[in-house]
Design goal:
globular, 2 iron, 2 sulfur cluster binding, 6-stranded antiparallel beta sheet, binds FE2/S2 (inorganic) cluster, binds fe (ii) ion
Length: 368
């Protein structure tokens, strides 16, 4: 299903569903990023609230990840305050109950040592893929082939991949996904870094394939945004600029962006893949992990490429933390503070978020 956003009438049936504000529930049967793999060293217990549930991650002795409820079945102490003991068990710090990677209570050190049924805890499906620990918290089969393709994180040389980024955002994940899918805000929020005069006049296109929504923009012969001038040799001060961002329901996104010489194939230019991973922490807070991977690298030399790697990481962190986050968090606060039911005035540029919301509405029904 393809559509030029400029042709979408705000009052058309497709726009009838307002962007989500608060839902009060989550899609559980989906893959979310629990942690970057590097956030889970062997021998550690790492707590993380996901979909409002306390989860503790750890690695088994064979190195594979595991995750169980981070709340002891006895007196509800966080197990992440405890210790990893031999046999891939987590020992509660309070009275020493031990839980296996499957959540089952394996040892009660207090005589007579019986283990009540209520002592067993839920565990979660986890898989390590593309330098991340993915978690599935629903009860339907967890199929790792449903994880979106972030293989560029594994196949590209490390010198072209920015450090794994993390921000805690005080806003619902849908507001952040809407921001990422909304290419029109770039000119206003990220002028100079990612935006350039003229970009707002570009055509924005919307496509849907299954539960994947892609918004793309192409603009001919403009001043190359600062980020891409830095990544290109001389002669790329002007050219065609392009961005395409895909949202994989419910909350992971992959962007491809770059610049090339006017009228040349996009692949002849240079740019990066942007990895955006949103994991709902609560209804009003989100774990936001991100990274970038350069494609068709044109600059030479390790020293130069390391400088560019660092700079891309810094600029993107600045864009998210100092430019996007304050707006999204303020938006969330206004929404929460409203004493009346909010009905947003929809513009043609909202077609992407509206399409996503329709998919989320269906997935929420299927999730029950
Ligand atoms: S609270 Fe965990 S063993 Fe008592
Ligand atoms: Fe942004």
């Amino acid at each position: 299903m393809d559509q030029a956003i400029g042709s979408t009438k705000p009052d058309s049936p497709d726009m009838a569903a307002a962007p989500a504000v608060e839902r009060g529930r989550f899609i559980k049967n989906a893959w979310y990023v629990g942690l970057w793999a590097s956030e889970l060293p062997a021998g550690t217990l790492v707590p993380q609230t996901i979909l409002s549930e306390p989860v503790v991650f750890f690695r088994k002795q064979d190195g594979t990840p595991a995750a169980i409820l981070d709340r002891c079945a006895h007196r509800f102490v966080p197990l992440s305050m405890g210790t990893l003991v031999p046999g891939d068990r987590v020992q509660c710090p309070y009275h020493g109950l031990e839980f296996g990677a499957d959540g089952r209570c394996m040892n009660n050190p207090h005589p007579p040592g019986t283990i009540p049924t209520a002592a067993h805890l839920p565990s979660f499906h986890v898989v390590e893929k593309y330098s991340m620990i993915w978690i599935w918290m629903g009860d339907k089969p967890a199929d790792p082939s449903l994880i979106p393709d972030y293989s560029c994180l594994e196949t590209s040389p490390a010198i072209h991949i920015t450090d794994p980024g993390y921000l805690s955002i005080k806003a619902n994940y849908e507001l952040i996904a809407n921001n990422l899918l909304d290419l029109s805000h770039v000119v206003y929020v990220h002028g100079g870094i990612l935006g350039s005069p003229g970009l707002e006049q570009s055509d924005i296109k919307l496509e849907t394939h299954g539960d994947v929504v892609t918004v793309s923009r192409f603009v001919k012969d403009v001043e190359t945004p600062g980020m891409f001038q830095m990544m290109a040799p001389e002669g790329y001060e002007r050219g065609d600029s392009f961005t395409s961002i895909s949202w994989y329901a419910p909350s992971n996104l992959l962007l491809k962006t770059g610049s090339c010489k006017t009228g040349q194939p996009q692949e002849s230019g240079t740019g990066y893949w942007g990895i955006h991973l949103l994991t709902p922490e609560t209804e009003r807070t989100t774990h936001y992990r991100y990274s970038a991977v350069r494609w068709n690298v044109m600059t030479q030399g390790d020293e130069k490429n390391e400088q560019i790697r660092q700079k891309i990481g810094e600029l993107r962190t600045f864009a998210f933390a100092d430019q996007d986050a304050p707006i999204i968090e303020a938006q969330q606060r206004r929404i929460v503070a409203s004493t009346t039911k909010l009905e947003p005035a929809l513009l043609a540029i909202d077609a992407g978020p509206v399409r996503c919301r329709r998919i989320l509405d269906r997935l929420l029904l299927e999730d029950r």
